[in-house]
Amino acid sequence: MKYAPTPFCRDRALVGELASRVLKGDHRALGKAISIIEGGGPARRKLIQEIYPRTGNAFTIGITGPTGTGKSTLVNKAIEEYRKRGRKVGVLAIDPSSPLTGGALLGDRLRMMDHSLEREVYIRSMASRGDVGGLARAARNTIRLLDAAGMDVVIVETVGAGQTEVQVATAVDATVVVLMPQLGDEIQAFKAGFNEIGDIFVVNKADITNPAKTIFNIASGVEEKNGWRPPVLKTVAPKGTGVVALVDALEKFGKFLEERGLREGRMRQRLEAELMEAAFSDFCDEAANRLKGEKSWRLILGQVSKKELDPETAAGRLVKIIGKLDGTPNA
Amino acid sequence: MKYAPTPFCRDRALVGELASRVLKGDHRALGKAISIIEGGGPARRKLIQEIYPRTGNAFTIGITGPTGTGKSTLVNKAIEEYRKRGRKVGVLAIDPSSPLTGGALLGDRLRMMDHSLEREVYIRSMASRGDVGGLARAARNTIRLLDAAGMDVVIVETVGAGQTEVQVATAVDATVVVLMPQLGDEIQAFKAGFNEIGDIFVVNKADITNPAKTIFNIASGVEEKNGWRPPVLKTVAPKGTGVVALVDALEKFGKFLEERGLREGRMRQRLEAELMEAAFSDFCDEAANRLKGEKSWRLILGQVSKKELDPETAAGRLVKIIGKLDGTPNA
Questions:
Q1: Confidence grade of residue A169 (pLDDT, cut at 50, 70, 90)
Q2: Is the dihedral angle over the CA atoms A303, A304, A310, A312 positive or is it negative?
Q3: CA atoms of A167 and B240, how far apart (whole Å)
Q4: What percent of chain A has pLDDT over 90?
Q5: B305 touches chain A (CB under 8 A)
Q6: How far, rounded to the nearest angstrom, does the alpha carbon of residue A188 sit from its chain's CA centroid?
Q7: Which residue of B has its CA nearest to A309?
Q8: Do A163 and B162 touch (CB under 8 A)?
Q9: Threshold 0.90, pTM exceeds
């Protein structure tokens, strides 16, 4: 009698096969694997289990900044430069389908597709609509897939508007913040946010006006961290101006992290934050469903609705109930 | 011997006194109380306990939309119109100190301060930097304070960029989305987000160009909900054009909610979401601290760092550990 696998076993076997094709650098397998990661189902866990031991080799780069600063073109040119240096490059473009910027990246992404034809470049986009924590997690696992597939460099491109995008843009070895002259408010606001996350700053579109003032403003807000003073570079992406210097700076920063033994520590810190987030997110999803089945939840909600109990006291009581929930149904 | 209150009792007594002054409509007490809410300490709970039974009377309005659509001026004019109708108005302006829009509202807020001189208007701003969930919670409780202080109308002004701002802008009876002609991408993106949250739409700055196309685009994306078709209004805020119609529409919507018995149900839904969020946020804060003290946490983190365990399997194990944490320290 032939062995008849259950659907679960068959899925596991298929995921195992997919993983081994990803590890060989198969682009079609990579595409399927990323879709599994995005889907967030149980196969995701098996997949990550298989490929995780083979990660940690790629140098990972986050590229972020306001909309309209020309990040995609800059990423295009950086890919070309990395190709000249013989590196395999994986790109993950986060497409911000938020009310304010939705769809803006689509054209950019299509322009990037020239590179997809090459064997040593893999480009993928991911929508940022929907569940916030889920995106950061999917992005981290996609970086892992690209890494395990043998990419030497993995670039994640985001628009730095929201908490998630910043989270994604900093889940990497090096974060590049792209700005441009004449940003006005954005440059003012720069000091409030971007200056903390950038390891390298770029003033792109440096040909539209004299960028000296913008560069000065940025440089004066930048602080040295662990012996690295983030450089402020000037680029004109469509012409490729300054792109060699940008890739040089990235490689220099990579070496700096290795030589100082900082890369490990930074990885561990990111891992710590990631595990906390993932575990609490999963816990809360499960516990919220169980809580909604509890009599005490309906009772408390009713009391607050009738103003017999205030929301803050109610939250305190619910915290205790959550702590005592177990896996057994007790509605 | 005189009774010597412990600091805790004294704080409770002070908060009790503050609450009773808030309930009498004392603006200085209101200012202090909002600061306590913003601070997020234990006094917050006592304060909300005291004032919560006296809430639910104010009609609460969220005003949101992209930066630069003139929301603050529109709010100014709406305040004037409400004052003419004899209503007391409380305003909470969320100041988005995000990298992309930081500080932009400061000028607007200062311009609004004319109204602060009046006894029947109270205006307060709140920074949106930092903890995301915390802001939504502080905003909800600030709305409660303004409500309990006797305001007939409470307006919350946000910039609708992020998840939090949308959360805040919809924690109210009526949500007004403010757009303008020539928004281009924003109007395109409109269909992706704002159209779901608005009860009333406003095309402000209707004098800069013919707004007909913008109005048509919005109106064609708007859907009837429970028998209410969100109107699309035209305003020129600095001149006050269309402001009477906006306040009329808000009052009409308020009546609609009452007459259909929808207000209660909407409140209960908001309360349900709020209690879930608050309880899980508090639970996770406490549990994360306890988890960090657990041997098993350090063990798992170490295994993942050494690639002996993958992050997804680790998250699964941590979920089980979180479920078993209790209040007793066991590092």
A1: confident
A2: positive
A3: 42
A4: 57
A5: yes
A6: 25
A7: B49
A8: yes
A9: no
Both tokens assigned to A195? 């200056």
Q: Whose CA is closest to B300, among A56, A275, A264?
A: A275
pLDDT in tens, A174-205: 999 998 887 665 555 555 567 788 999 999 99
Kindly state which CATH superfamily the domain A55-260 is placed in.
P-loop containing nucleotide triphosphate hydrolases (3.40.50.300)
Q: What is the ipTM of this complex?
A: 0.84
Contact B280, A284 (CB under 8 A): yes
Closest-approach residue (CA) in chain B for A50: B310
pLDDT of residue A187: 56
Query: What are the chain B neighbours of A319 within 8 Å (beta carbons)?
Result: 279, 282-283, 286
Judge contact between B67 and B101, C-beta under 8 A. yes
Interface size between A and B, measured as CB pairs under 8 A: 217
In this complex, which of B104, B166, B279 lies closest to A185 when CB atoms are compared? B104
Judge: A45–B313 Cβ closer than 8 Å, yes or no: yes
What is the model's pLDDT at position A13?
79
**φ, ψ of residue A232 in degrees (nearest 5):** -115, 110
The beta-carbon neighbor of B279 closest among A48, A140, A318 is: A318
**CB-based contact (8 Å) between B311 and chain A?**
yes
**Cβ-count burial of A45 within 10 angstroms (0-12 exposed, 13-18 middle, 19+ buried)?**
middle
**A66 close to B (CB below 8 A):** yes
Confidence of residue A66 (pLDDT cuts 50, 70, 90): confident
> What CA dihedral angle connects B172, B174, B180 and B181, to 10 degrees?
140
- Computed over every residue of chain A, the mean pLDDT equals 84
Question: Which one, of B30, B83, B104, B69, lies nearest residue B198 by Cα?
Answer: B69
Place of tokens 């990660």: A55
- Would an 8 Å CB–CB cutoff place A282 in contact with chain B? yes
Q: Is some CB atom of chain B closer than 8 A to the CB atom of A331?
A: no
| Residue from A175, A180, A312, A322 whose CB has the most chain B CBs within 10 Å, to mutate | A312
Query: Nearest-CA distance from B297 to chain A in Å?
Result: 10
Q: How far is B23 from chain A (nearest CA, A)?
A: 16
Name the residue among A56, A140, A315 with its Cβ closest to that of B278.
Answer: A315
CA dihedral A70, A143, B302, A265 (to 10 degrees): -30
Window from A92-96, B77-81, B247-251, B312-316 with minimum mean pLDDT = A92-96
Answer yes or no: are the C-beta atoms of B135 and A163 closer than 8 Å: no
B304 in contact with chain A, both atoms CB, cutoff 8 A:
yes
Beta-carbon separation of A188 and B103 below 8 A: yes
Torsion angle, alpha carbons of B177, B180, B181, B184, to 10: -70
pLDDT of res. A218: 86
Asked if A276 has any chain B CB less than 8 Å from its own CB, the reply is yes
Confidence of residue B244 (pLDDT cuts 50, 70, 90): very high
Domain boundaries, chain A: 9-53, 55-260, 275-324
Sign of the torsion angle spanned by Cα atoms B76, B82, B87, B90:
negative
Q: Is the pLDDT of residue A6 over 60?
A: no
pLDDT in tens, B218-243: 888 888 988 999 999 999 999 999 99
Residue B69: pLDDT band (50, 70, 90) is confident
